[in-house]
Amino acid sequence: RFCIFPIFIFFFYRKSLGRSSVRSRMSLKSPKAYNSLPKGAVIWDPKPLQVKKIFEALKKGLNEYLEAHQAELDYLSGRHKDTKRNSRLSLPSLSPLQKQIRSVERYIRKLEFHISKVEELYEAYCIQCRLRDGATNMKHAFSLSPSTKASRESLVELYKNFQECTEDMCFIEGALEVHLGEFHVKMKGLVGFARLCPGDQYEVFVRLGRQKWRLKGKIETDDSQTWDEEEKIFIPNLHEKFEIKVTELRGLATILVGVVTCDSINFFTTKPQAIIVDITELGTIKLQLEVLW
């Protein structure tokens, strides 16, 4: 009698898993959708909490862009009405103002589609996450029951379902990354008060996952700074944080100034974000960057 209830629940649960793979149902034909899933490798460690944070920040940022362009469209439409009211001539071709209105309308439609796609992906991700948690709970329930042939077969099936859900979650994470946009990172310079002297040379190394940016700078006699690069484009990643390392160059020797990490969740916004991070523990040298999404 002890085994009947878990087995009944399992067959009910297995019926709910009678589905084609998420990857076969989702219309993601672009090869960019596989950026985070290298050929021949599968990430078996999805991170639902991190994905939820990124999704909420991304959706908020996209809605900010949508509101800004909707306000621009309202302003242009008002100007167009005033122009038509004040003009007695009907122009045969589109005026520059009408072309601008149509351009903004097209961009708004693209944003709305982008938001709906992100929501669709996250909804599918949450479904797979719940199914995966259910498989985990059922595995635990069967482990407490006496071992029988039926229970062993059920455990094998549950393990298979658990793996499928995990793989589908990893796939959706890769598909979601395609919709994260770009981060344009600008170098604003080092701030160090008395620590920065004319002639000092520094190297800044910024990494986000596999993406790297290495640039060198020098403190000039007038306390200004020159850098061999000023801007770099990074593709956002669901799981990786910005890692920043600063070293001082002294001839052939290099001295580590400090290493810091910076989360990218706050960068999904319409306004440029200033980053000022303490490179040294006491904050005697700071690095200033600007991120535009």
From TrEMBL:
<dbReference type="InterPro" id="IPR026136">
    <property type="entry name" value="RIPOR3"/>
</dbReference>
<comment type="similarity">
    <text>Belongs to the RIPOR family.</text>
</comment>
<dbReference type="Pfam" id="PF15903">
    <property type="entry name" value="PL48"/>
</dbReference>
<dbReference type="InterPro" id="IPR031780">
    <property type="entry name" value="FAM65_N"/>
</dbReference>
<keyword id="KW-0732">Signal</keyword>
<protein>
    <submittedName>
        <fullName>RIPR3 protein</fullName>
    </submittedName>
</protein>
<feature type="signal peptide">
    <location>
        <begin position="1"/>
        <end position="18"/>
    </location>
</feature>
<feature type="domain" description="FAM65 N-terminal">
    <location>
        <begin position="14"/>
        <end position="293"/>
    </location>
</feature>
